[in-house]
Design goal:
Blueprint lengths: L1 E6 L7 H11 L3 E5 L10 H6 L2 E6 L7 E6 L4 E5 L12 E6 L2 E7 L9 H22 L4 E6 L12 H4 L7 H12 L3 E2 H5 L8 E2 L5 H4 L2 E2 L2 E5 L1 H4 L2 E6 L15 E5 L1
Parallel strand pairs: 1-2, 7-8
Antiparallel strand pairs: 1-14, 2-4, 3-4, 5-6, 6-7, 8-12, 9-12, 10-11, 13-14
Helix pairs in contact: 3-5
GO molecular function: DNA binding; double-stranded DNA 3'-5' DNA exonuclease activity; endonuclease activity; metal ion binding
EC number: 3.1.11.2
Enzyme class: hydrolase
Length: 256
């Protein structure tokens, strides 16, 4: 079973690339982020025509997450995270597919830092950790997949100096991510490539793609039961090179 995480950076603008990805790679489950689409304008018919069922949590113009399943309709479990009732951002969607629990996550960017956006990012990480503990208590196969907007380690970025002041690499951001891992989650891509140097994002600016000046912010975390089934993990980097592609490449894990 191949589970992919894909920040599409606007599903309407990238729909041809998404449909191409589904046809070429045929992942079993895809967690999408940054739909930039309201619930009403989500392209369900195009996705269903490609052979995928879907649940989605949209928001006009920004944010938005979805879960797609090949040949099946995901069963929604939860949308949004508890702990901040006034938070209306569409950043978390949890579903079940063939007995596997998956969550599509679009964690706040947090820039500029310091400031209220960074404070919101850290609170969101704490709320995600609270949900993580609840999911682990279920003792099931769970995958937390998405754009975490956290560069966990120095070898997950092309240049430490270039990103030193960015919210993605602040000690508080990294600490929040590590606290989540410490609950018992497995960072699948890090497990597969412990040496680092695997990028999932390349900015559109300053020729970042051409220079391979990227970093790793898309993560698929596995519960212990899911980690026992880990067969492989990787990045479908070729899809970042296509015309009018997202600035993220699909990142995936394969479970037995």
């Amino acid at each position: 079973m191949k589970i992919a995480s894909y920040n599409v950076n606007g599903i309407k603008a990238r729909l041809p690339r998404l449909l191409e990805y589904l046809a070429e790679e045929q992942p079993d489950i895809v967690c999408l982020q940054e739909l930039k689409s309201s619930d009403e304008t989500f392209p369900e018919s195009d996705i269903r025509a490609a052979g995928y069922g879907a649940v989605w949590h949209g928001q006009k113009g920004f944010n938005g997450v979805a879960v797609l399943a090949r040949g099946a309709d995901p069963i929604e479990r939860q949308r949004g995270l508890l702990g901040e009732p006034e938070d209306e951002h569409s950043r978390y969607l949890e579903a079940e597919v063939d007995g596997l629990v998956v969550a599509s996550i679009y964690l706040p960017n947090g820039n500029p830092q310091p400031g209220p956006k960074f404070d919101y990012k850290l609170r969101w990480l704490d709320r995600l950790a609270a949900r993580g503990r609840e999911l682990l208590a279920e003792e099931r196969a769970v995958v937390l997949a998405g754009d975490y907007n956290v560069i966990p380690n120095d070898d997950d970025v092309f240049s430490i100096r270039a990103m030193a002041t960015d919210a993605l690499m602040q000690p508080e951001s990294r600490e929040g991510y590590r606290r989540l891992l410490a609950q018992g989650w497995t960072d699948s891509l890090r497990t597969r490539f412990p040496q680092g140097g695997m990028w999932t994002f390349w900015d559109y600016q300053a020729g970042a793609w051409q220079r391979d000046a990227g970093f790793r912010i898309d993560h698929l975390l596995l519960s212990p039961i899911a980690a026992d089934r880990l067969a492989d993990a990787g990045v479908d980097k070729a899809h970042r090179a296509k015309e009018k592609a997202s600035d993220h490449a699909p990142t995936w894990v394969r479970l037995r």
